[in-house]
Protein: DNA-3-methyladenine glycosidase I
Amino acid sequence: MINRCKWAENPGLDQDYHDNEWAKPINDDTKLFEMLILELNQAGLSWHTILKKRENFKNAFDNWDYNKISNYDEQKELVLMQNDGIIRNKLKIKAAITNAKAFIRLQKEYESFSNFIWSFTNNKTIINSIETDKDMIAYSELSSEISQILKKKGFAFLGKTTVYSFLQAIGIINDHLNSCHFK
Structure:
């Protein structure tokens, strides 16, 4: 039997995500954008809910093409608001569009969003020592700092907790339990 983090013990979407994606370094800008938008949509909801809707999000948001998303207009926002396959929250939909524009600006400034986000740790993963779920934190100084910078750069709906989850998702932070096979 493989030891896993407690939240991923049951087979299915959560376990597949845990085993194959969570805390694994991502450098591809399209994948980084996907995770950024999925994480902002997760705010106030369970990650399991987002995983169940992930394919719907991908289809609704043009396969995470941030160039297309940056040009969405009010008509497209209305279409998205009527799509029951995604989270139909107007603020989150608007944030996805706003963030696509800011994402493109950061790409130009840093040559890629990956260069920007990984620069905070000199391209290294922070591996936290997590004995039990009680040792998990919701945010850190790093996620607070990045959240503030993203806001100054024009991003929306990305507070310190959402950014922390994003950093976990893309492998900048590894919070697998010490006993987890995937640490």
Remarks:
- The radius of gyration is 16 Å.
- Residues 81 and 89 are 7 Å apart (CA to CA).
- DSSP finds nine helices and two strands in the chain.
- Residues 6-174 form a domain with the Endonuclease III; domain 1 fold (CATH 1.10.340.30).
